[in-house]
Amino acid sequence: MTAFEGFERMLRDSLTHLYDPLYEPPDQLYQVTGCPPEQGPACVHSAVIRAIRDLEPPSTVPTAAPARRFYQLLLSRYVQGLTQDAAAQRLGISPRHLRGLQWKAVRALARSLWQHSRIGVPEGSTAPPRGMQHEAAGRANGDLEGWTSQIRQELESLHRAAPTAATDVADTIRGVVQLLDSRAERRAVALKVDIAQRVLLAAIHPSVLRQALLVAITELAQSMKDGTITISAELRAPKVAIIATAYPVSTAAEVDLSFMQMVLASEDQTVAFTTGSGGATISIEVPILPEDSDIVTVLVVEDNEDLVSLYRSYVEGTRYRIVHLSQVAQLLPTVEIHEPDVIVLDIMLPEPETDGWELLVGLHDHAATKSVPVVVCSVVREERLALDLGAAVYVPKPVRRTQFVAALDEAISQAA
Asked: Tell me, what DSSP letter sits at residue 130?
């Protein structure tokens, strides 16, 4: 096995643990990414994400070209954290096709990282020669400056794309915890969500808050051997406070707040770290959403969690906010609490006593929901029947982002 093949194998393993708070990257991954070990896993994580984004081909490259496919796959799987099935649906390919494509995409990523780090390094060596260590350190400092600059650029890009973006804090927290739990094969640190208030809307892009939370949990976990990290949120008008508390932690617990401070750089957003009584806490405060903001609540009745995560990624940066319901029995109480503007309904529901078509008719006839437009999103390709039974719009699965957002736009337009 060559040195590169060994690195490629190590990278494949590291990618499966990318969002595991307790995962410690191998020394070689620190070396290849140019990250000083004292900066911890967060630096390696950011370097890998940056390397994936660097693979984005020019806009002139066709959609079906391998380079663009590789980039889209890596972005979906390891930046946005989608499952293989959800990523396959987004790319419009089968899960089996995606697995074969993923192997090639990771090899392309490994080659990019390897070539960037191996300039001047003798063939077959696994670490920079002793005489090149100062040069490597210089590259690390340069990488840090580039990293900071890249963060600013991405924040500006997010703001330009969605200047009035909003985030459901509770949903974002649960999504982060679900992502971390799904990535960890074994964990001595348990994650717990403790949120009493069901709806907390914050004036921040969901991608920014999600990445800040991922780093906060990862940093806290590094100071623990076992125990629990509890993530809670509460309204502290005019802000929403998100609190991640770890217990127990070592007496010398330290965390690196640099990434969180950079992405939460606005004067309305703050992050702080405190310790005491054997525990440690990272607190993030972001402004609440103004009451006059044009937010559209979408109630998704769907038993497939992966699909709901996909729909949430579809509406990021738009005016739409998704509320998920998997149990039809809770439909009317959920409608009363969230007052949805649109309902997205799957026809093939898991409850044996529930028929999706009957539910559609019931929604159209019930006083609480008859004025709420329904988008039927199903593998059952019966558009005419869906419209005849009261649906505002029908879209077949699998549905792409443009189709999904257009269906919501059409439903809102009809209701207006």
From this structure: G
**CATH superfamily, domain at 296-415:** Response regulator (3.40.50.2300)
Specify the pairing of strand 279-287 against strand 270-276.
Answer: antiparallel
Instruction: State which amino acid sits at residue 119.
Output: I
249's CB contacts (< 8 A; 6+ apart) are 220, 223, 224, 227, 275, 278, 279, 280
Task: Give the separation between CA 257 and CA 272, rounded to whole angstroms.
Answer: 8
* Contacts made by residues 59-62, CB under 8 angstroms, sequence distance 24+: none
Task: Give per-residue pLDDT as tens, 70-123.
Answer: 998 998 888 877 788 888 888 888 888 888 899 999 998 998 888 777 433 444
Q: How far is CA 67 from CA 54, 71, 129, 179, in A?
A: 12, 6, 33, 27
Q: What is the pTM of this model?
A: 0.54
Q: Which CATH superfamily is domain 167-287 in?
A: Histidine kinase-like ATPase, C-terminal domain (3.30.565.10)
The domains of the chain are located at: 3-161, 167-287, 296-415
Question: Rounded CA gap, 130 and 270, in Å?
Answer: 42
